[in-house]
Amino acid sequence: MKIQIRVRAPNGQTRIEIDDEEKLGSLIRLVKDKTELLDFTLKYGYPLKNLDMSLDAQEKEVKEFGLRGETLTVVPTEAPVTEAIPQAPPPKPFMPKGIEPDETSLEWPERNGHIVLRVMPDDNSCMFTAFGGAFGLDNPSVVLRQKVADYILEHPEEYNKVILGDEPLRYTSRMKQMDTWGGAIELSILSDIYDVEICSIDVKSLRIDRFGEGKEQRIIILYSGIHYDRIAFCMDLSYPVEVDVSRWSTDDDEVLDKAKELAQRLQRLHYYTDTTDFVIKCEICNWIGQGTKEAAQHERETGHGRFGEMSIT
Fold first, then answer.
1. Of 114, 199, 227, 234, which residue is the catalytic one?
2. Catalytic residue flag (residue 304)
3. Cα–Cα dist 208/199, whole Å
4. CA dihedral for 74, 76, 82, 87, sign (positive or negative)
5. Which pLDDT tens digit goes with each residue over 43-93?
6. CB within 10 Å: which end of the chain, N or C, has fewer?
7. What is the pLDDT of residues 255-289, one digit of tens each?
8. Rounded Cα gap, residues 184 and 296, in angstroms
9. Known catalytic residue at 202
């Protein structure tokens, strides 16, 4: 029987199809062909564990390892051989203002890796980008805004004017615009659509808000007052985000504890905006107000959803 296995490696993601009666050695050779790596270990499961790649194990059939539907993470043990062709430097990651890169991750020796903050662009779509990245979505803001809008209109009894604070058609029309913020309502809906628990850690209070409790899988995002980022696990900080682990079993509370520990570090660095009294400016009409409540009211009255925090000197 043919099975598909997802493979994550430093050079990207791919899928491998193999007959489950093939030997493990054949699977390893396929991974070598796909990744162009010669020497590596393979990890799988939650939490990650090593796949037995001994010579004896390579003579066993693939089906004996329970890899159907699994994701194999490739960990190189030697640098890949590449031609010496000059290349442009990789783009710099988005970093919080005033915070150094080494302050956005915590080493996790027990799992041979790091828990890390993946900082989202400050473009009014951070919540959608943070969530969509955990599922490897292309153009997540457009895709998820449309899915949320459709879901709201398909569930009129649950998402009515009282819940939304506006007529559903107006609310969904505004939500499909790229400069409109997403929040708790959208997280709750995305939890239902993707059948995943979303844990949102508030940096200021360290409170954890859960959307969709009782699901089998969980993703973790970080809320810093007016911005969302994604929490991920990586085995090496030099690896691209494509090989991150961003979804975990809801039985794995250790990862939630580690994410909260990272949030505590960011709290000490004041990586949050106090939304109770910060001064905010509408970037569309230059309206100036105070706090998220006034911003929400302005958005309802005008449809303007692009705001920025004003510095008071």
1. 227
2. yes
3. 6
4. positive
5. 887 667 889 999 999 999 988 998 887 888 888 875 443 333 334 333 444
6. C
7. 999 999 999 999 998 888 766 655 677 767 777 77
8. 13
9. no
